[in-house]
Amino acid sequence: MSHPGATIVLVGMTSLDFGSAARSLARAAQLRGLVAPVFASPPPRGDLDRSIRRRNGSPVVSIRLRDRPRGAVLADMVEGIVVSNDLVGARADLARSALWLAVDGEHDPGALELRTEVADSAPPARLRHNSAAA
């Protein structure tokens, strides 16, 4: 929707937002046992939106911020972690979900939920009823 004489400006991600998202994503990656890459901006080549390379064995994900929507930058950051850790299939999908939760929750604290995965399921332990204590 436009207004006469008004200009709509698409606001992208600032370098401060980028740093905050990088810290949140690195923390989420490390909590899941993943390698957290170094995030940088801009990529070494001006014609790229994202580049991933290794420097001294550590992944470096460089992302262009200028003239790009916040969602595109965040998507490149999430994919940078997935690619840096060689994740595929269901493992990649689980990582993406967890990483998106980490950055979506930073703007809406009410959106955060505790999510756990059950690796092995065991029957619940039987509780003894102690009528003397009641």
Q: Uncertain spans, ≥5 residues at pLDDT below 50? A: 107-131
- Give me the count of strands: 3
Biggest pleated sheet: 3 strands, mixed
Identify the overall geometry.
globular
Number of domains: 1
The overall pLDDT average reads 79
Counting DSSP H or I runs of 4 or more residues, the number of helices is: 3
Query: Which range best describes the helical content: under 10%, 10-25%, 25-40%, 40-55%, 55-70% or over 70%?
Result: 25-40%
Please provide the ordered H/E string of secondary-structure elements.
Answer: HEEEHH
Instruction: For the record, give the distance between the C-alpha atoms at the N and C termini, rounded to a whole number.
Output: 66 Å
Radius of gyration based on Cα positions: 21 Å
Strand content: 5-15%
Secondary-structure content class = alpha+beta
Main β-sheet, spatial strand arrangement: 1-3-2
Explain the overall architecture.
Helix 1 runs parallel beside helix 2 and helix 2 crosses helix 3. The protein starts with 14 loop residues before the first helix and ends in a 30-residue tail after the last helix. Helices cover 36% and strands 11% of the residues. It has one domain. The chain is of the alpha+beta class and 134 residues long. About 19% of the residues have low confidence. The relative contact order is 0.15. Strand 2 and strand 3 form a beta hairpin. The chain is globular and about 50 Å long. The chain has a three-stranded mixed beta sheet, covered by helices on one side.
